Amino acid sequence: MVNDEARTITVADHSDGVRESGEPGRPVSLPVVEVLTGRGFITGKSGSGKSNSASVIAENLLDKGFGLLIVDIDGEYYGLKEEYEILHVGADEECDIQVTTDHAGKLATLALEQNVPIILDVSSFLDEDEARELLTAVARQLFAKAKKCKQPFLLLVEEIHEYIPENGGLDECGKMLIKIGKRGRKHGLGVTGISQRPADVKKDFITQCDWLVWHRLTWNNDTNVVRRILDAEYADAVEDLDDGEAFLMTDWAETVQRVQFHRKQTFDAGATPGLEDFERPDLKSVSDDLVSELESISEQREETEDRIAELREELDKKNSRIAELEAELQDARDMSRMADQFVDALVEHVEGANPGRTEQAKLRARHEDAVANFPTGDEAQVTFPDVADESDSKAENGEGTTAESNGEGSDEAVAAALESFGGFAPPEESEKGGESTSEKNGESTSEKDDEKPGEHTEARGTIPIGECPEFVGRVRAEIRTLEPKTRKMLAYYREQGQASPLDAHFVAGGSGDRTSAYARNRALRTSGLIEHVGQGTYRYRLRDLLTERADGDVEESDLDEYVAAIEDSIEEY
Q1: H or E, element range at 435
Q2: What pTM was computed for the model?
Q3: Domain extent at residue 491
Q4: Which of 23, 150, 438, 469 is the most exposed place for a label (fewest CB within 10 A)?
């Protein structure tokens, strides 16, 4: 059972003043339960004695064994350790233990369950946001644990205007303190705010306080707060209060009391430094077991931070290595792509290359659709008789091509490959391939041109070749001197408009041999019947060839007739 002396704490004496209800010098006591669980406010300008009054209240509570947690913004309360075993926590080496938000739960447990008084020194934090986060976490833990413990406990907050300002919104810390002020009492958790600027403190907090202490105030905005809450008489008198003197207003007293607070008994760490020597007294330390519990949390945090740092370092190294590998891979891809483009262009133009059996199999598979879809029978517009082709047999048996036998191909092929790959123009080629082929068949171009007019006329009623200009007959003769498979390739180009030599050769009945396909393609290209259009494909250009041979002196309608005459006469051949 709590005795009467434990129910109150004596903190001041009556002094002369306005509406004095008691005799001067008579002791003034405060009910412990109201101080511990209620809402209090202590204010006064700097040097008026507000911090001394707060310390006197703290000393009296500690003398009777009650718990409290002091939020020290200016590092003024460590002097309590001169007489009391109080845990001093913060961020520097002057504290018993350096703490972070990780310690918030343990601090609340020590305060409420083990009744350990605590000074939370936020003045030692260089980062203000870090200090606010710590106070928020501790206040939240106190509120949560107070619901279960139901232990009377006081949270004493210096410079409370920093957390619950009159102007501006509230952050998480301010909201948590307001929450304790409104709802903490029923759980046994009280809060007392201290400020030298009452005008800057949220008025909702001040007006809801159960007890208030008004020390000397001189600024008009602050005295106006006194006028609003007390009256004009006190607003004038508050400017003349002595150091340590204050107006005490409580919910349990009928009158406002003018009191003189006692002087604190412990070292005054908040006193203004003078010229005299400063000597810090011996301070009491808390038990090693208590500190070791908090140190274990710090050690775990340090280990976690070290491990995180190691993992981040490893991750940075791996990310750097990944970036290097990605760069190397991209370079390799670029080089591979360039090499593939150059090789493709070179292979398309180099004569005499001999793909292996695997390549031939790939070509056959690639051309199956072309063979299946190439028009036959009634759908075919250009057909040629299929005769034996010696050059294909030689190519398949590994013998040299016409180009190779004439010593041609290497320089021209490289130039053509460069044309396809990088846009270089190849040197103009000779027409030896055509002449060679013509001589092989035992006839010359001039002999073909001597044919009589009227021969090989168009069966469908187009203009007879004999009635066409000389250059038309010459082009027709050049086409007719080509070997059958070469003419079939030309027919495929005509049908498709644009195609690759391998496709044309395969559809013409070739074996898919690259060497033979490009040898025949060269004959068509050097004759001007097809032209390279890029990416390994060629375009049918009989009409363009006739335009070139006519030197532009021909009508478009006549040109259509000449093209038809040549193509139809070839079909009959």
Answers
A1: helix 432-440
A2: 0.54
A3: 350-572
A4: 23
